[in-house]
């Protein structure tokens, strides 16, 4: 996609936001909304701050991740103005004023102060953002009904947003390929992380989330947060869950690789890949996502039976008895956009049989979601089943053989279209 085409899409995106905000502000009785970019909090008893990604509704308009102490004013007639914090500071680099085509639609001014701009503010105004940042700002702070409406209109992506998420997938795919090569070359988790960062040209602090890079049994820790600097004596598996942020938009991709030392585990990966592809193909408008999650459990049950991990029970019985939940404990996916777990995905509580499901909506065209089934060997979940009355149906010896491999997760980012779905990941990463 050319820069000119992306600029045209961004212009359409801003026009869409102006109309949407005008309607929402009118319906909720406001003349304007002032949006804070937010700022990184300083660590307790320290003078160092955490890395700042930016407030979602600010990024939705500007895409300026990492910008702090800046303010965006949106008025009911669609007028949008941005005040970018540009301190006189010899300790740090001062951000340049943006010059992209979108600034033709949103005038940008620099200001030294961290406070809201000193202009005549509309009388009926809301101010949204981190409560610590907006405490002294004029206006009604974070009105819940307005925030819910603004969250809701982020659910359906514009053409510009889809293009950004797809580009984030393309960039992340280069990192996943480099990570796989580093793993097969004998690299440690730390080595693999460095290979991913180098290939994506993205500092870890700028990534949409902390990359999950687990070798062997670490692949069975769902949000494994460390990087061992030494490789294991025998490497059997790699699970990498890592993304890229592009113009504020996120990708979220997971792949699992097994070595020739673990042929049964590699067969499970192949089975999971086939299941994941079927689930992606099943995405369509009108489908309840919880129903697709239930289909994933049926697929995991079929994989458990065909691999010999569970014997003597049919797929439905495995699901009803909770056996599949011991192997696949998390939800099938979530909404994706400016945030990795994007807003408005959970208007209703998760069903009782899927307590960790992050998306409880009926799918609509324009939504971007993740599809990420998994199968893990997690002692705290499997041991109670193995020791229960259902333990006889589980192949203990095979479980023990596969435990050192940790687990499998395969995750793609999928756009819901008017007639079905388009996978934004697979064109760049098999």
From TrEMBL:
Binds 2 manganese ions per subunit. The keyword Protease applies. Mn(2+) 2 binds at residues 241, 252, 411. Its EC number is 3.4.13.9. PROSITE patterns: PROLINE_PEPTIDASE. Residues 11-151 form the Xaa-Pro dipeptidase N-terminal domain. Keywords: Dipeptidase, Hydrolase, Manganese, Metal-binding, Metalloprotease, Protease. One of its GO terms (molecular function) is metal ion binding. It catalyses: Xaa-L-Pro dipeptide + H2O = an L-alpha-amino acid + L-proline. One of its GO terms (cellular component) is cytosol. Mn(2+) 1 binds at residues 252, 334, 372, 411. Pfam families: PepQ_N, Peptidase_M24. Its cofactor is Mn(2+). Splits dipeptides with a prolyl residue in the C-terminal position. Belongs to the peptidase M24B family. Bacterial-type prolidase subfamily. HAMAP family: X_Pro_dipeptid. NCBIfam families: PRK13607.1. This is Xaa-Pro dipeptidase. It comes from Tamilnaduibacter salinus. The gene is pepQ.
């Amino acid at each position: 996609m050319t820069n000119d085409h992306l600029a045209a899409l961004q212009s359409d995106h801003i026009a869409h936001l102006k109309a949407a905000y005008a309607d929402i502000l009118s319906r909720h009785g406001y003349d304007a909304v002032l949006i804070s970019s937010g700022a990184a909090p300083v660590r307790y008893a320290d003078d160092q701050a955490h890395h700042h990604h930016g407030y979602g509704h600010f990024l939705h308009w500007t895409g300026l991740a990492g910008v702090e102490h800046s303010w965006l004013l949106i008025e009911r007639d669609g007028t949008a103005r941005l005040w970018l914090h540009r301190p006189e500071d010899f300790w740090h680099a001062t951000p340049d004023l943006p010059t992209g085509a979108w600034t033709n639609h949103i005038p940008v001014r620099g200001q030294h102060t961290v406070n809201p701009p000193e202009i005549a503010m509309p009388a009926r105004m809301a101010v949204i953002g981190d409560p610590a940042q907006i405490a002294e700002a004029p206006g009604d702070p974070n009105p819940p009904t307005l925030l819910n409406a603004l969250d809701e209109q982020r659910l359906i992506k514009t053409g510009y947003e889809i293009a950004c998420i797809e580009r984030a997938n393309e960039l992340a795919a280069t990192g996943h390929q480099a990570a796989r090569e580093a793993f097969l070359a004998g690299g440690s988790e730390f080595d693999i992380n460095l290979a991913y960062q180098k290939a994506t040209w993205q500092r870890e602090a700028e990534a949409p989330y902390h990359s999950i890079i687990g070798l062997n049994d670490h692949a069975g820790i769902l949000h494994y947060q460390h990087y061992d600097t030494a490789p294991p004596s025998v490497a059997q598996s790699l699970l990498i869950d890592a993304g890229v942020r592009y113009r504020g938009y996120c990708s979220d991709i997971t792949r699992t690789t097994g070595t020739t030392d673990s042929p049964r585990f590699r067969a499970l990966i192949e089975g999971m890949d086939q299941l994941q592809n079927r689930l992606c193909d099943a995405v369509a408008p009108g489908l309840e996502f919880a129903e697709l999650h239930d289909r994933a459990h049926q697929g995991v049950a079929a994989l458990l039976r065909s691999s010999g991990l569970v014997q003597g029970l049919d797929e439905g019985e495995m699901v009803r008895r909770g056996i599949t939940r011991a192997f696949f404990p998390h939800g099938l996916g979530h909404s994706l956009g400016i945030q990795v777990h994007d807003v408005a995905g959970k208007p209703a509580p998760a069903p009782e049989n899927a307590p960790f499901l992050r998306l409880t909506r009926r799918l609509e065209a324009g939504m971007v979601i993740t599809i990420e089934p998994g199968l893990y060997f997690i002692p705290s979940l499997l041991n109670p089943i193995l020791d229960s009355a259902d333990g006889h149906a589980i192949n203990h010896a095979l479980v023990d053989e596969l435990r050192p491999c940790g687990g499998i997760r395969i995750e793609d980012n999928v756009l819901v279209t008017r007639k079905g779905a388009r996978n934004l990941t697979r064109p760049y990463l098999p």
